[in-house]
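Changelog-adjacent note: as of this version, every example in the card shows the full chain rather than a window. The one below runs 252 residues end to end.
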Amino acid sequence: MNGNEQYLNSEVLAAIDRAAFRAQQPFPWINPQYFIRPERYQELLASMPDISRFRAFFGKQRKHGQASHDRYVLDYEEGMALAAPWEQFIAELRGPVYRKFVCSMLDVADVRFRFHWHFTPNGGEVSPHCDSKGKIGSQIFYLNTDQDWQRDWGGETVVLDDGGRIGPENAPGFEDFIAEYPAETRDNRSLIFGRRGNSWHGVRRINCPENYYRKVFIVVFEEYRPFKMVAKKLRRLVTGTELVSEKERLMY
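Full-length structure tokens:
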């Protein structure tokens, strides 16, 4: 892949202050624009997977009594049929430049990724929650523009500040937080955040017309510790459980 074919915008990556990101409150987060080169972003928008390929994920009770995060989901798997722009973009995300960038942002030695698309229809929401301990962060790429999404329809990921008062095993509402910071979502924005014990975030109920969707592509970050993984597999071997979980199978 030559320089003209890159999807990641090296100038934007280089301009992000890693120390400032890690010092951000209430937990590390940043909402950059043009992380993807603008001309390449348009190619991705024009070639997204069709929703007919997604599985419905509705009415699933979450831990701690939190409300279901209703949406359509498509997980990336090696060898799946994708348009060329998406194949190239994901190949670049799996490459050394992006991996090094994420490691430097989160101050870890190595990282593995999982990738998935979420399309959320009218009425969908993401109740306030902290991600599972297995994750160390995520990057959410927003795939809506002024042409297909109006601001008053919602869809912003909201970074929430609990003031250190709410443990992750609870099911608070948006009104229970002392401050909130909604991310900009349209026109080539993304949200990068690092997981901590207080990494509360959510998406308020969406109010959009039928056949419109909040569209995102998410990269999940998981720290890679080879020795820890070997120990985990040995325990599974002893207990007779599956050696590789479904989530681990989708890690790259």
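Structural remarks: The longest strand covers residues 111-120.
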